[in-house]
TrEMBL record:
Residues 213-233 are annotated as: Disordered. Residues 95-225 form the Anti-sigma K factor RskA C-terminal domain. GO terms for biological process: regulation of translation. It comes from the Bacteria. The lineage of its organism: Bacteria, Bacillati, Actinomycetota, Actinomycetes, Propionibacteriales. One of its GO terms (cellular component) is plasma membrane. This is Anti-sigma factor. Residues 6-36 form the Putative zinc-finger domain. It holds the Pfam family zf-HC2. GO terms for molecular function: sigma factor antagonist activity.
Length: 233
């Protein structure tokens, strides 16, 4: 990946990176204070917009916006000296935040800032945890702990998974919805720090997580490490 990692802070702040890019940027954040500050500020700005408008965009809009953004050249960040006028630094931050907010709205993300007790989750996961009607529950498993949040008003369920053990590259965590004894894949958890967001399951449906071969399975091949009834969260 040849992309200048400094240019990915806006996309990272709204959880719009691929799993490979997010992993590379996570490593970059450990060494770059400037990017950590920028990501925090962008998430705060995006949270303000997300809190004011919870309406979802048309399903096809996100794909169109991301496809158009992919055609635009990424310019390297312009470095401003620390002795620059405060007004110039503030203007630069506001413009960067505004760019992130536009991406949030256009792509249909309802974004919220990370809570202090949830420092690792990304914006789309934080939205559910930060909802006014959110219910949360922390569950311990033999692979570590995770926290589940449900929000009836958003119609979404989120799982914070950064407490789970990292698996070898040959294995992956996979989520399932189980209804009337039938398990349906809800996708892989590709980034433990990002967590997972899904639509609120229908009544009588439980959600489970299993450890599967890399790439996932068509049906569970191992005993779930956890099973949660969203109605009991």
């Amino acid at each position: 990946m040849s992309t200048d990692l400094h240019t990915l802070s806006g996309a990272y702040a709204v959880d719009a990176l691929s799993a490979e890019e997010a992993q590379a940027f996570d490593t970059h954040l450990e060494e770059c204070q400037a990017c950590r500050d920028e990501v925090r500020e962008l998430q705060e700005a995006a949270a303000m917009m997300g809190a004011s408008e919870a309406r979802a965009a048309p399903p096809a809009l996100k794909a169109r916006v991301l496809a158009a953004a992919d055609q635009l050249p990424q310019l390297p960040p312009k470095v401003t000296s620390l002795d620059a006028a405060p007004s110039r630094r503030w203007t630069a931050r506001v413009l960067s935040a505004a760019a992130a907010v536009v991406l949030v709205v256009a792509a249909g993300f309802a974004v919220s800032q990370n809570r202090p007790d949830q420092p690792s989750i990304t914006a789309s996961t934080a939205t559910v945890f930060a909802a006014q009607d959110a219910h949360t529950k922390t569950v311990k498993t033999d692979r570590g702990s995770l926290t589940v949040a449900t929000s009836p008003s958003l119609g979404r369920m989120a799982v914070q998974t950064d407490g789970l053990q990292k698996l070898p590259t040959s294995r992956a965590y996979q989520m399932w919805t189980i209804h009337a004894g039938t398990a349906t894949s809800a996708g892989l958890i590709e980034n433990l720090k990002a967590g997972k967001v899904m639509s609120m399951p229908s009544a009588g449906t439980t959600v489970a997580i299993t450890v599967e071969p890399a790439g996932g399975s068509t049906e569970p091949t191992s005993k779930p490490i956890v099973t949660v009834d969203p109605e009991q969260v």
